[in-house]
Design goal:
There is one protein chain. This protein is mainly beta. Helix content is 4%, strand content 37%. It is built from four helices and 49 strands. Strands 3, 4, 6, 7, 8, 9, 12, 13, 14, 16 and 17 form an eleven-stranded mixed beta sheet that branches. A hairpin with a 6-residue loop joins strand 37 and strand 38. Helix 3 runs antiparallel to helix 4. The chain is rod-shaped and about 180 Å long.
Length: 802
């Protein structure tokens, strides 16, 4: 046992969280021996896979071997071919490095490049630099540059794999070839198998950088990897290990009415610079759904193509699922494996082209509307990286055609000196010929232990007036995706050439982001008429309904008059949707034609609305009154009537204001009532008034004055009535006289002056209520048999005595 040494580096590999309980490289001096070679495959990590991703990075596969026979110095190390199959069968989309299927998928022997300290001297095992054996080298027969030989370290104590010179560590990173055993396979040819030999000593093979597409329906749950080798004697391992599980989808939404935003906009009111219209929000389906390009480093080199090897980086085996890099789009980065298929663009094994990109496509942007988006997801933020896990994203592309452009060595965000209304930097987008604009943001910092949400602002600006613009939609997704970026078809069966990563749109997410309402200013165009008679009462104000949309629209009302002398008789005020128009005729003379003008309603961005108005100024009214009666009145007659009629002169103006008719009966008559049909006049027992206006030549309804005649009345009596007011030019009062003959009472109630049976019948009908009661001859307060007896006495030749 003194001739055998074992060296261990399990603790260091555990610090890298490789998933191994111990990871030992065994060497044996010549002449040693061991048992049967035993190997076991396991998953070094089981990451969640995004259901949108076409290039999802699966977990590393670890093959651990123990036992076996020690080799003999200088002999060639036996080799095997290791093939990995995806189950269910999905095409492997790791990046191609040549047309024959050589890819970025890698197999690493003994965690080369991890720098884990061991007892071996001379830089072997984990201390050895990563040395690439390409697929082309693996497939050479005999004398291949990748042939490994049994050797010892510089101390002579440890058995190691060396090249033909006997001292240089053999190649320890092997390049996988995709498609030789189906599109779901990757093969590693000529992999040397140097048995660990001694009990407790382990040799490891790590398979990494395998990418697969999840969309398409073949992969909906758990993804497994099946491993087989070309000969059980060389590397006895087979079986299935779980390397991924499909997680929930990303969610995205639009807030079309964010706090402080301008939506819904008013089309007639131009914006003052980029005004917040909406916010678009993206949320991970699971923690680590938003992956940065590479692992953030403590020295803040978050945009580096190849992480600084002085700090934990992604060219250290096991780093991917060690707890600090699970949210990275890149896998195990091997600078030695690189190609330049396009002039000036170099692709490196394991290195993605960029981090997760989030895309918004704004559809049908109206002509004349300028569209902006915020360049970042936060107002201010320190340079991402180090221990900071706050989610953060920056704008990297302003069109769908550029969404797949590679950043190469560093991210160059788009910047703008324009500030949006919410204080963020606002970048102007250019729409395509279809009126669509696009913005692509890249995630540059994310928290691998929480479900992150990123929110970006959307702004608009316009100077011209617009009609109604119905809600305009925005589609949200992860970019690049089919239809926007330049990359192979969604279900490509060959490995990816450009870019990485890429995504599918599982379902249309988004919603409306912009609504512009047209302004509306409208009112009736029917002229508003005003009438005035000289010396009359000024006409009352009139209201006109005005439609104003939106209600916040500022509208001014300006009176404009056109008259021979430019008189300013028109005024107006606007309150809410009510326009109040007034006419002041003071100083205006009567005119054969109406004075004309209008009220102009004005608001920014809409056409003026004109509300016409007219003022007709008439000459003064010329009121006259007549009083008349029919027949003679009788001494003691209880109800005799006069008829009063008020008229306006034919060439006069209409009456204005209150018209009053007053009755002045003679001393032997008493007014019982003053009445009129209809509702024009309002009467008492001495006067009637009205505010009703009549035009020139018009006549008011007749007024009936009922009087009682005194028993001692003598003939002749004169009734007097006057009319006043109404703006009449005839003077304040106009008088009418009516002479009335009073005759003695003969009890001839029929009026024929000869008492007869007809008089008796008339009074009987009055007593019975057949005709209106008039003659209470005996003055007892009612028409009854006493009154009939008086008439009968007169009819039979007796004196008519009351």
């Amino acid at each position: 046992m003194a001739n055998f040494r074992r060296w261990f580096f399990a603790a260091a590999l555990i610090a890298l969280s490789t998933g191994l309980a111990s990871a030992q490289v065994g060497v044996k001096v010549p002449g040693g021996g061991g048992g049967f070679l035993s190997c076991m495959a396991m998953g070094a990590g089981v990451p969640e896979l995004r259901p949108e991703g076409y290039t999802e990075l699966v977990g590393d596969i670890m093959i651990e071997c123990t036992g076996g026979m020690a080799g003999y110095m200088g002999t060639q190390v036996p080799t095997t071919t290791i093939v990995v199959y995806m189950s269910p069968s999905v095409p492997i989309t790791s990046r191609f490095f040549d047309s024959n299927g050589a890819s970025e998928a890698m197999l690493i022997i003994d965690e080369a490049g991890s720098s884990v300290a061991t007892g071996a001297q001379g830089g072997y095992g984990p201390q050895a630099p990563q040395s690439l054996c390409t697929t082309a080298q693996q497939q050479q027969l005999g004398g291949s540059p990748c042939t490994a030989y049994v050797g010892v370290d510089t101390s002579g104590q440890y058995q190691v794999a060396v090249q033909s010179d006997g001292k240089t560590p053999a190649q320890n990173v092997y390049q996988g070839k995709i498609g030789d055993y189906g599109v779901n396979s990757v093969a590693f040819y000529g992999v040397p198998v140097l048995a660990p030999a001694d009990q407790g000593v382990m040799r490891t093979y790590r398979i990494t950088n395998i990418r697969v597409p999840v969309p398409g329906g073949n992969l909906t749950g758990t993804l497994d990897a099946f491993i087989s080798t070309s000969g059980a004697a060389a590397l006895p391992v087979s079986g299935t290990v779980t390397v991924g599980i499909v997680g929930p989808a990303m969610m995205a939404k639009v807030d079309a009415a964010p706090a402080g935003g301008g939506n819904t906009f008013v089309g007639c009111v131009p914006t003052r610079g980029p005004t917040l219209a909406a916010q678009v929000t993206f949320t991970e389906g699971f923690a680590q759904g938003f992956k940065t390009r590479v692992v953030p480093l403590t020295d803040a080199a978050w945009a580096s193509t190849v992480p600084n090897t002085a700090t934990p980086g992604q060219n250290i085996p096991g780093g991917m699922y060690g707890g600090f890099a699970a949210n990275s789009e890149s896998g195990f980065i091997l600078p030695a494996a690189s190609i330049t298929p396009i002039s000036g663009v170099t692709y490196t094994a394991g290195l993605a082209d960029y981090g997760t990109r989030l895309k918004a496509v704004f559809m049908n942007v109206p002509v004349g509307v300028s569209l902006y988006v915020s360049t970042t997801s936060a107002a201010s933020y320190a340079t991402p990286g180090g221990t900071n896990t706050a989610p953060y994203a920056v704008l990297v592309a302003d069109s769908q055609s550029n969404e797949g452009n590679s950043d190469q060595a560093t991210i160059t965000p788009l910047t703008s000196a324009i500030t949006g209304s919410d204080g963020l930097s606002a970048y102007p987008l250019t729409t395509d010929i279809s009126g669509n604009g696009a913005a692509i943001w890249e995630v540059v910092n994310a928290n691998p232990n929480a479900v992150d949400t990123l929110t970006f602002s959307v702004y608009v600006a316009y100077n011209s007036s617009f009609g109604t613009i119905n809600p305009t939609n925005v589609g949200l997704s992860i970019a690049p995706e089919p239809g926007g970026g330049t990359f192979p078809t969604a279900n490509a069966t060959q490995g990816l050439t450009n870019p990485a990563p890429r995504f599918a749109v599982l379902s249309q997410q988004g919603g409306s982001w912009l609504t512009i309402n047209s302004c509306l200013l409208n009112a009736s165009s029917t002229p508003v008429p005003f009438f005035y008679s000289i010396s009359g009462t000024a006409p009352a104000s009139q209201n006109v309904a005005v439609t104003i949309k939106p209600s916040t629209l500022t509208v001014t009302a300006t009176p404009v008059v056109i008259t021979p002398n430019g008189e300013n008789w028109l005024s107006a005020s606007l309150s809410g949707g009510t326009l109040t128009i007034s006419a002041n005729p003071t100083g205006l003379s009567a005119s054969a034609t109406a004075y004309t003008g209008w009220v102009k309603l004005s608001a920014t961005g809409v056409s003026d609305v004109l509300v016409p108005a007219t003022l007709t100024v008439y000459p003064p009214s010329a009121l006259s009154i007549t009083t008349s009666h029919v027949g003679n009145f009788v001494v003691g007659q209880p109800e005799a009537t006069y008829t009063l009629i008020v008229s306006n002169g034919a060439s006069a103006g209409p009456t204005s204001g209150t018209v009053t008719v007053t009755e002045y009966p003679p001393s032997s008559e008493t007014v019982v009532s003053m009445t009129s049909t209809g509702s024009v006049w309002t009467c008492t027992t001495s006067s009637c008034t009205t505010n009703y206006s009549i035009a020139g030549g018009g006549t008011y309804p007749a007024i009936t004055v009922t009087v009682s005649v005194a028993s001692n009345a003598t003939s002749l009596l004169t009734n007097v009535a006057t009319v006043s007011g109404g703006g009449s030019a005839s003077g304040p009062t106009t008088t009418a006289n009516d002479q009335t003959t009073i005759v003695p009472l003969t009890c001839t109630v029929t009026g024929d002056h000869t008492p007869s049976v007809a008089d008796v019948r008339e009074l009987i009908n009055e007593a019975l209520g057949v005709v209106p009661p008039v003659w209470d001859l005996n003055s007892d307060g009612s028409i009854n048999v006493g009154d009939v007896q008086v008439v009968i006495s007169a009819a039979t030749g007796h004196t008519c005595v009351l």
